């Protein structure tokens, strides 16, 4: 299973994808909050091997 961590700030987000035991699948990278970059992010996450979860925050 993949876990996606997203740190959202004004205008951009930092994304990292990890597997159990801290194995990094995709190193942290930034996505600017514009349609084209967000669409690329969605495509990237949809095409990952294994099930992908987006941990909920409270």
Write up what this structure looks like:
The structure is a single chain. By secondary structure, the protein is α+β, with helices and mostly antiparallel strands. It contains one helix and four strands. The chain has a four-stranded mixed sheet with strand order 3-2-1-4, with helices on one face. The longest helix has 12 residues, at 35-46. The mean pLDDT is 89.
Largest sheet: 4 strands, mixed
Mean pLDDT: 89
The 3D shape can be described as globular
Q: In what order do the strands lie side by side in the largest sheet? A: 3-2-1-4
Q: Separation of termini?
A: 22 Å
H and E string: EEEHE
Share of helix among residues?
A: 10-25%
The gyration radius over C-alpha positions equals 11 Å
The low-pLDDT segments are: none
Give the structural class.
alpha+beta
Topology, number of strands: 4
User: Approximately what portion of the residues adopt beta-strand conformation?
Assistant: over 45%
Oligomer: single chain
Number of helices: 1
